[in-house]
């Protein structure tokens, strides 16, 4: 009897051990493999002096550590400004394109451009833009022209919701993901950096091609004219000298052209249009939101450089999501129902087709109303008198919520029904409002997440919302008790 009992206990123990082993195997491609040290907000300090070229980069980057790959990726974009060829080689070493539905990848990107969009090449030559990658490092401020402090330090913020969501999708392909975001000290622009490690390898790659373009998004409107002039005149590098590189990295290292005029970007061969691969094809269409207009400081006399919404207004204009009214933008003016429908129609059209080619007639908004009705974007009917009335925040959320498919609005905030203090689950348009909260599009007016559904919404606030719809890097994860 005792022997039988002992055998039974031993059998159960071995079974439990096997189940535990199988569980670890099942989680091997997901978040369970991520080091605790990686999953927190932290500062990362680069080698000093920071590498100038691929040979030096290989000496200091730890490709087994996603924090190291992410930080040196941002630095490589700074090198792209100073020396296009060296910067591109560094970026290609750290980047890989994914096969959407397989376990394959292409180091350097399928187009050999490391996810870089040649549309932004002109910004590498323009002093008004060349400083933008510097603004992500600690110590770089508008007051000092965004000059870099040595050693270079970058703040990495762990994006837990996105990391969890992508790992749940990618586990079947044997991929492990981690996502960080970094923030510019100019206009507060936030850029998500998605990194992947593939089955059987401990090597990490940046896999979010749109991140390189996002670093160069226009933030000039967030600083004054004098600060822009100071930033444009600043040095692109970290101020290190040739002798320092030779001493740190060894003979034959460094940049022979250091001290001369910065090398201009060489004319790249016409590459095929880079294709950024996503685990979910619905997210790929978000790449259609690319700048088509150029915002100039002072374009809207009623939008001051220091205004909280300037960067969002500028981006909404550049992405062709919003336009001015008369001689200005009217940032404090109320959004009308017609304007809300126009924004939803433009977002939906750009997502689906890559452009928002609408020809206005009389009344001006009819073309947008027809489009919205045809594509079933509206969840309520409006009379002719409604279109020129201010939209309530409840109406605005309902109109915008269906401009993108659910797959392009993945949940990044765990918000249960009735968590928003003034929106109950049975309220009108509650599903739309909660959908936008969970996707990080709406965050509420205070720490409690109050929505004030019956209040009107300003055009500046609308600009913040539509840019979050278009750019996942601007979305905010929140927690509501």
Structure description:
By secondary structure, the chain is of the alpha+beta class. It folds into two domains: 42-279, no CATH class; 285-474, no CATH class. The chain is 36% helix and 8% strand. The protein has a five-stranded antiparallel beta sheet, sandwiched between helices. Strands 2-3 form a two-stranded antiparallel ribbon. Strand 2 (96-98) and strand 3 (105-107) form a beta hairpin. The longest helix is centred in the first third of the chain and has 25 residues, at 2-26. The radius of gyration is 25 Å and the shape is globular.
Topology:
Blueprint: H1 2-26, E1 42-45, H2 54-60, H3 66-82, H4 84-94, E2 96-98, E3 105-107, H5 121-125, H6 127-130, E4 153-158, H7 160-170, E5 175-183, E6 190-198, E7 204-206, H8 210-215, H9 225-233, H10 242-249, H11 281-284, H12 310-318, H13 337-353, H14 366-374, H15 393-400, H16 430-438, H17 459-470
Antiparallel strand pairs: 1-4, 2-3, 4-5, 5-6, 6-7
Helix pairs in contact: 3-4, 12-17, 13-14, 13-15, 15-16
Query: How would you describe the shape?
Result: globular
Largest sheet: 5 strands, antiparallel
Summarize the helix and strand pattern as letters.
Answer: HEHHHEEHHEHEEEHHHHHHHHHH
Order of strands across the main sheet:
1-4-5-6-7
Indicate the mean pLDDT: 81
Helical proportion?
A: 25-40%
Unreliable parts: 1-29, 256-280
Number of helices: 17
Structural class: alpha+beta
